[in-house]
Amino acid sequence: MTEPQVLDAAESSRFEIHVDGKLAGFAVYRLGHGRISFIHTEIDDAFAGQGLGGKLVRAALDAARTRGLAVIPLCPFVRGWIQKHEDYLDLVPEAERSHIGL
After folding, report:
1. Left, alpha or beta for 101 (phi > 0: left; psi -120 to 50: alpha)?
2. Helix spans in the chain (H)
3. What range(s) does the N-acetyltransferase domain occupy (predicted)?
4. N or C: fewer beta carbons within 10 Å in the chain?
């Protein structure tokens, strides 16, 4: 197995993670007004238990940071991942944190 690859499939408004050339999962987002809202994250059952969800979210959040975007984690998986990795909490505007349970 090769190293998973994450890419921003902007035409589909989602980040995708690929393993050995196969789509293993994705994180759907909505862009607007200097923000990226993560709506839904999904990993194919065939790739479950390999930590791909975390790799996908980390890459997506790193891309948001690089682009200077505020993050709105509406997706429970993304929100939970940020809760476990507090070094990414600064991406979520303070005013939004209490609304989404952070």
Report:
1. left
2. 52-66, 76-84, 94-97
3. 1-102, 7-93
4. N
Residue entry with tokens 């862009």: 31
Look at the block and give the residue holding tokens 């607007």. Answer: 32
Q: Which of 14, 18, 25 is nearest to 3 (CA)?
A: 18
Which token pair is 64?
A: 């948001």
pLDDT tens digits for range 45-75: 999 999 999 999 999 999 999 999 999 999 9
Q: How confident is the model at residue 100 (pLDDT cuts 50, 70, 90)?
A: confident
- Specify the pLDDT at position 38: 98
